[in-house]
Amino acid sequence: MVGIYFQINDWILSVDENKLYRQDREVSVEPRLINLLHFLAEHAGEVFCRDELIQYVWDGAIVTDQVVTQSIFELRKLLKDGREDSICYVVTVPKRGYKLVADVITLDATQFPYGKKSETTYHAEHETSPPESAPPPQDIAFPAGPLTRAVCQMSKSKKEKVKTNKLNYRRLNALNVLWISALVIVMGVFTFKQSEVRITRAIDTHLIEFKYQDDFSDALSFELADGFTQKLMSDIAQVTDYRVLLQKAAFTSGIVPGKSVIVRVKDNGGNSFLEVEYRNNASEKVLFSRQYSLTSQHLSSVLYQASFDLMRVLNVPDAKQKALALNVGMPIDPKALELFIQANHYLNVSDVKQFKHGIDLLEEILQIEAENTYVQSELLIAYHVQKALDSDIELARSRVQDLSDGLENQIVTMSGPIQPRIYEALALHETIQGDLKSAQHHLNEAFALRHSVMSYVIKGKHAELNGNLDAASEAYSEAFYIDTSVETYLLCENLVFPSNMKAIDYSMYRSVHPSVVRML
């Protein structure tokens, strides 16, 4: 067998056969995808932009960028083969193009494990054995009939031969016409399909995706990066009309966030730095990037400055005053503030054990700053959310009641701005206790200061208690709109009391359970 073969991770590519092999799988592939994979395999690790791929793979044919993008998408899906693991084959290099990152080995025909046994090339119908030696010519004995009989038979044989040749020629012409017609039809359909406008994704300019770098050398850097990300995401959601989305949410709706905020914690010569980068995904340009020195003494100023800088680049009015207001009540002690940022990471996950660690961190902060009402409100909410995440957990009722009583007493004597989180904590606790009148009062106070996920979830629960499922659906949808995440869905479903999300808000239910089939 003569051919071109490549081993690409666990796949084997047979270029001549237009096939991919893996274990017991044999997949026939379109030639355009085979040509694309063949080219990338020959240049594994090299980055090629769309124009270069069009030039080398499509031989400079007139095709759109969408054709290249669609081919890359189909190739990734083909190589992944329905597997849930994180094997990467073709990756996108931002602003540069695509490259094959798999391990590639060139094979020859002897190394190709799926080759057929060599078939004999001997066929009886094609046998060209030399003719037996003809007997020496003998005198032909003509029949007694006239000589014209032999001449007529020879003429008839020639006419039959000519007739057969003409018939074969006509058949060949008809076959050629058929093939040419089919080719013209295929080219016409292909050209028409190329000219169709197919929208595969749309950019939502009012959606900001927050990301944090997750390849850290130590757990502390990871927790700080996520904690900073959660804080910045919460700040932007409070002071702007933007929706926010954390990258960990695995939603694939075809909607691309219009903006991205990337948070990294870097180590440079023993010094840690927080890097915040803001990019516009529509223009693929980095509009803001800054590093902040990350030390325990400067955490408070870094929190404020990063929030202020991000608000300023997003054109938030009165950004300075709003950034200051959002930091009111934060722990003052450097160690307590560092623990609070770490707790931000653990209190925004749905894993029960990690969430419990976040509660322990808040309790540790209150040992340092016992009268911090902002931390107390976060802890009160955290205890109730923990119960919602795992109904088997026994609620620390005495501790929860102490926190609630302490907040009630301190809120009366507090002067200056009050964090809306305190009102939300009291409204949640009073709703669970059945004191709906006080809960509604504190919920109104919270809404007067900001619209948050927690406020809308509590509002939805109140609507359910009043039997107004339409209002509950709207409130839960608003919460999910502010923060599109599984954690938000779980709050709507389980906080205070279990809610039937399939009956109340079916669209949200389907977004979290996409495999559900609704029977009509």
What does this structure look like?
- Among the domains are: about 5-105, Orthogonal Bundle (Arc Repressor Mutant, subunit A); about 200-325, Rossmann fold.
- It is elongated and about 105 Å long.
- The model is unreliable at about 115-155 and about 515-520 (pLDDT under 50).
- By secondary structure, the protein is an alpha+beta fold.
- The strands form three sheets. Strands 4-3-2-1-7 form a five-stranded antiparallel beta sheet, with helices on one face. It has a five-stranded mixed beta sheet with strand order 9-8-10-11-12, with helices on one face.
- It has helices at about 30-40, 50-55, 65-80, 150-195, 220-240, 300-315, 320-325, 335-345, 350-370, 375-390, 395-415, 420-435, 435-450, 455-465, 470-480, 485-495, 500-505, 505-510, and strands at about 5-10, 10-15, 20, 25-30, 90-95, 95-100, 105, 200-210, 245, 255-270, 270-280, 285-295.
- Keywords: DNA-binding, Membrane, Transmembrane, Transmembrane helix.
- This is Transcriptional regulator CadC.
